[in-house]
Amino acid sequence: MFKCTQEDVRAAKKFDPAAPCCLMIFLAYPGVIALRRHRFAHKLYNKGFKNLARWISYKTRKKTGIDIHPAAKIGHGVFIDHGMGVVIGETAVVGDHCVLYHGVTLGANTFDKVDRHPKLGNNVIVYANATIIGPIKIGDNSIIAANAVVVKDAPPFSKLKGIPAHRNS
């Protein structure tokens, strides 16, 4: 868990040109705080302490404006910039080294108790107010535009014909 937090702080430093020192990122960045608390709640949730995990999730949303279900799986080195209004649903997966901006929703398209949330690959950037709905896959190195509504799978960016991967992580 501590290693993940270190990677999240490094990701904030890398992707936010206005980022101050690492200590301030750790203490004051809502995205880093929400991810740190989520990782703890996720462990509790997986050990069967679901109500306690949901309470931590609720308190985190109240403090940061970021709503992450404790069952959601989130990779290493993730950066949630600004964060207000970010929603990550129960069966969502966020890969390693992803960047999510404010207002992003990884939501469901059904009320049934099934796998119903998006799966983001590694190195995905989702810009402000984008909404990704349903059990779809967003491939590695993909970029989701601001205000986009995505309801179908997106292939990995590096595999699109004639277009190289946009970065290495």
Short description:
The chain has 169 residues and is of the alpha/beta class.
Your description of this structure?
GO terms for molecular function: serine O-acetyltransferase activity. One of its GO terms (biological process) is cysteine biosynthetic process from serine. The chain crosses the membrane at residues 17-35. Keywords: Acyltransferase, Amino-acid biosynthesis, Cysteine biosynthesis, Membrane, Transferase, Transmembrane, Transmembrane helix. The protein has 169 residues and is of the alpha/beta class. The protein has a single domain, classed as Hexapeptide repeat proteins (UDP N-Acetylglucosamine Acyltransferase, domain 1, 3 Solenoid). The strands form 3 sheets. The protein has a 5-stranded parallel β-sheet. The chain contains 4 helices and 13 strands.
Write the layout of secondary structure elements.
Blueprint: H1 2-15, H2 22-28, H3 30-46, H4 50-64, E1 67-68, E2 73-74, E3 79-80, E4 87-88, E5 93-94, E6 99-100, E7 105-107, E8 119-120, E9 125-126, E10 131-133, E11 137-138, E12 143-144, E13 149-150
Parallel strand pairs: 1-4, 2-5, 3-6, 4-7, 5-8, 6-9, 7-10, 8-11, 9-12, 10-13
Per CATH, the superfamily is: Hexapeptide repeat proteins
Query: Low-confidence stretches at least 5 residues in length (pLDDT < 50)?
Result: none
Total domains: 1
Sum up the overall morphology in one term. Answer: globular
Calculate the mean pLDDT score and round it.
92
Structural class: alpha/beta
Major β-sheet annotation: 5 strands, parallel
Give the tally of β-strands. Answer: 13
What is the overall number of helices? 4
> What would you report as the Rg, rounded to the nearest angstrom?
15 Å
